[in-house]
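To: structure desk
From: M.T.
Subject: fold request, one chain
Message: Could you run this one when you get a chance? Sequence is below, nothing fancy, just the single chain.
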Amino acid sequence: MELKTVMVPAIGCNGCVQTIKSEVGQIPGVTEVQGDPASKQITVKWNEPATWQAIEQKLVEIEYPPSAN
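Reply: Done. Structure tokens follow.
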């Protein structure tokens, strides 16, 4: 299982987190998506066939791009 936590500056509220959970959670292999509007961070857990590249692409597509750390 892979796990990654990233900053997503566009998160402004719990609704943003719910959108991210809904959209990223549809990617085959993603097992969990957690988010915190206060810290503007999300944590994603996944197995194959999901990849970080696919998750990051989905975040960009839904206009919640992760910041380059």
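Reply (cont.): The longest strand covers residues 30-36. Let me know if you need anything else for the meeting.
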